[in-house]
Amino acid sequence: MAEFHTIDAGGQAIAVRKDLQVPMRDGVTLVADAYSGVADKPRPALVALSPYGKELQALALTTPPQRRPSPMWDGCIEAGDIARVVEEDYVHVIGDLRGSGGSGGEMIGNYNAGGVPLGQDAYDFIEWVAAQPWCDGNVGMIGISYFGSMQVLAAAERPPHLKAIFVSGGHYDFYETTYHGGVMWFMPRAAREGRGGDSGIAHTNVKSRMQEVYSPEQLGKLVDERLADPDVAAWPNLVHVLKYPRNRELWFDIVLNHLDGDWYEERNPVTLAPNIDIPVWLQIDQGRGWTMDGTIELFNSVKGPKKLDIGPYPPMQSRPFVEEHDKMFRWYDHWLKGIDNGIMDEPAVTVFVEGSRERVTGSQWPPKDVEYRPLYLRPRHRLSFEPEAMSAEHAAPDGFYQAPLTVTDKVEILSWSTEAFTEPTELIGTGAAHLFAEIDQDDTNFILRLWDAAPDGARRLLTTGYLKASHRELDERSTEGNPYHPHTRDVPVEPGKIEEYVLRIYPFAATLLPGHRLTAELSNDEPLADAHNALLPPDAFHLPVGRPVTHKIYRDAARPSRLVLPFVTRRP
């Protein structure tokens, strides 16, 4: 039963409405907590919805914000700063999604993609909040990552009282949430199972969609097919999940579905985004290029007033999540309280540029005019604006042999670097890497990382690109410097055949200062530890290749392996 009491949080009195019962149209009841000032008056409400548990979010009242590498950092405390929300005179409403926490119903599959649409539940939840005497009928939403995706799913349903959303660090393409270039990423395992500094989903009634759809015999066949992939078979946790999916239902479903298609697309926030016509603020920090990709795609899809705000590296915000609140309250003061604070007079797009540490603005992404220019891989580990003139017999390929990580702890890396830049050189946008490569197996990973290398030896990661070789097919959306892969089927590689692989280089913004060099690194696994991965939870790496592979990278006159990058054109 719901209860009401007051608490003191840092000298501020907060009214707490605990375990509110929120009815859904199908008879299921969700539970929520509401936090507000003690004065008896209606206020605008900011709604946070996830399966991570409202009690976990309540730790924001007692746990000072933690940043990596604090062992107290918990990636699932993402609903925002409760005390700050109350201080700004909003009601903070934190709810548990069906099948999680204290709520009824069941969650079937990732984001409940096999059950009741989460956007439908969000619609009912928001309209219930708007009707309460402590709410003035104006509702926004709050929270990052899963909470952010929920904001987009809610807005796509167009609940009448949802007036605006402010989304930070959400995931909008469910396939790209877990498979980058077809290469499996382990971060979602942490968010679901609770590993590597994440509490994970507050399971109460969570089910596998695959187990709902397929018979045990069919599932057994699908599991065997997945274990035929040497990468999967060589990774103990994946073998365990596939053989014993109990309490790992959502991760089991993702592991089984390694190709894109209806499974991921039918309820993708990006797929539903054209329905959104309310004001939308989208914020993302650099360093997770794939998430930036989805954020930009979403920005281009929504129809109403909108802002795109791309911040600096690193991406790992504090937990409890407290960043971006100043911008958020300006946004909601305008759209929920009707305060003319000038926010809509400011540019639609703001981008922090690494290197120069400037913020550039514009009306679209990228905010400046760019020209795609090639940088060619050359002998002696050079990157050059001029193509290689020599033929294959004089420009022998670069190569590396990578043993599986079951027998080695060494990750082989090829690198190529430009000469030092003599003037500031700005790049903003997506890019591509065209690699003419030969391998001696039917598959491998290509992992590319771009670095800004300073004269003193310091390096800053700019962006990344990933491609599973069997996912090399391109689709009709591809343009120069902006490739897309459908990821709808595996096409095994013919061993010994030289093929052109085109990697998508995820969006970034950087200025190479005088004396700095651009370095491209290529491997088929990620380094086990380095400065970049140290900023992320332990599970934030990609599935290694489970077979020994020899790679040859050709970069001669006939096979011009190259990067294609977005150089900002200088206006007079």
TrEMBL record:
Keyword Hydrolase recorded: yes
Record SUPFAM superfamilies: alpha/beta-Hydrolases, Galactose-binding domain-like
Keywords: Hydrolase
Pfam families per record: Peptidase_S15, PepX_C
GO molecular function, one term: hydrolase activity
InterPro entries: AB_hydrolase_fold (IPR029058), CocE/Ser_esterase (IPR005674), Galactose-bd-like_sf (IPR008979), Xaa-Pro-like_dom (IPR000383), Xaa-Pro_dipept_C (IPR013736), Xaa-Pro_dipeptidyl-ppase/CocE (IPR050585)
Tree of life domain: Bacteria
Coiled coil: none
UniProt keyword annotation of Nucleotide-binding present: no
Domain Xaa-Pro dipeptidyl-peptidase C-terminal as annotated: residue spans: 329-564
SMART domains registered for this protein in UniProt: PepX_C
Protein name as annotated: CocE/NonD family hydrolase
Organism: Amycolatopsis acididurans
